[in-house]
Amino acid sequence: MPDLMSRRSLIELGVAGAATILPGQASAQTTHPRAAATGDGTAYPDREKIGFAVVGLGKLALGQIIPGFHDARGVRLAALVSGHPEKARQVATKYGVPSDAIYRYDDYDRIANDPRIQVVYIVLPNSMHAEYTIRALKAGKHVLCEKPMATSIADCEKMIAAAKTADRRLMIAYRCHYEPVSLEAMRRIRSGSLGRPRLVVTDMGRQADPTEPSDAWRLDMGMSGGGALADMGVYGVSASRYLLNEEPTEVRAWAHTDRSDPRFKSTEESIAWQFRFPSGAIANGSTSFSYAATMAFRVFCDQGKMIADPGALYGGNRLVVEDTAQKEFAPHLPNTAQFTREMDWMGDVVRGKAPMVSPGEEGLQDMRLMKAILDSVAKDGATVSTDWGYRRAFDPAVVVEMPSTA
């Protein structure tokens, strides 16, 4: 990380029990009753929309999150938090944010006195998630925090504890829980139409460019908490879990890193891992900051298979299904604004009209699994137990509605 990059610049870069559903079994859960906010295309009046403050005006916030408010049915952009006043003013002017709703990092805690803000969306380098999440919760705001949740298990636990103390909701931004291709794949597995799932394969990676400011901090272990694993690999770790609706009981992992490559002074270059699940299913995953870009998953069942390539991009994902007759077909699925659906869901969680599908505990589970992967890498592929007893409270396949194709 260049010494010339300031902290401020780095900031800118950037109620039911568990139900395990096996193929052929009915779910113990039923579809949660939802308001019109995200289901049938009816929008809330502007005065009833949940106000969001976006913290960090980096690439993701400007390219995906803030534009996503345009089509949101139940939430609106209410405030900005930035270390660059002029940049913030330009963004505020473009998106109609009042000048008195622009906050700096050094006066961030003043959001406590702003009733226009109900939710704070943390879009900062991973190492800053815990601090700004906890401060928002102490200010009495609900929090939607980008993934990975933090850079350590201890910080994840502090964030969860802070939410409980403040009696506020903490949601982690797992947009794929609400994305049509992932939802369709989950539902087909739950239905048993392709038989029992035997193998899930996830490959998530790309070439990192250290000249890109948004990649510079991701290549720093202290700021990212895991390099490619924390940036891209978390999608594969999460996908294997939500596709199978199970939690792995053990992992083995290996890495290859060319330390002569200046990009990999503190993070691993490429990592591959294998999860074992209670049902007998296996998940093979890989991530890299040095192979050709891919965001794909495959599911092999005993009577068919599914391939999503791409399967976890911001748009343009596609699912191909092959049954026992080797007949391939691609279900017609809507190409929705994923961040809009995610934020609208958070709005309904705050209203008490939707279940918390992506709580802090989900982020903690993935953080624990990523640490277990790195622990296994450090032990040259030794098996690491991951059977901590965690079970997700809500299965996205059951409670998240498929968006309209209209």
The count of DSSP E runs of length 2 or more, i.e. the number of strands, is 15
Arithmetic mean pLDDT: 90
> Which fold name is given in CATH as the topology of the largest domain?
Dihydrodipicolinate Reductase, domain 2
Shape: globular
Classify the secondary structure makeup into a structural class.
alpha/beta
Note the total helix count: 13
Question: Taking strands numbered 1, 2, ... along the chain, how are they ordered across the largest sheet?
Answer: 14-13-12-11-7-10-9-8-15
**Given this structure, which CATH class of the largest domain is correct?**
Alpha Beta
Q: SSE string, helix = H, strand = E?
A: HHEHEHEEHEHEHEHHHEEEEEEEHHEH
Gross CATH architecture of the largest domain: 2-Layer Sandwich
Q: Characterize the quaternary organization of these chains.
A: single chain
Strand content: 15-25%
- Sheet of most strands: 9 strands, mixed
Overview of this structure, please?
The chain is of the alpha/beta class and about 400 residues long. It has two domains: about 5-175, 3-Layer(aba) Sandwich (Rossmann fold), CATH 3.40.50; about 195-335 and about 360-400, Dihydrodipicolinate Reductase, domain 2, CATH 3.30.360.10. The protein contains 13 helices and 15 strands. The chain has a nine-stranded mixed beta sheet with strand order 14-13-12-11-7-10-9-8-15. Mean pLDDT is about 90; it is low at about 1-40.
